Give the backbone structure.
Amino acid sequence: MNDTKKEFKNSNTALESKIKNLVKILDGLNAHGSLNLDDYTIITDYLKGTFPEIKALQEV
């Protein structure tokens, strides 16, 4: 694998990790009632549409 492909793969892995962490935070806020359900739905629907490979999003 050439350097450009390695960098791209590493970049994607880092981005996916950050998105998964964001989802965990959103899920935690939602579970504690600290996040408006409409806002939670808008954000998670956007993430699901933009990053369909991320399975960490929980259904409310």
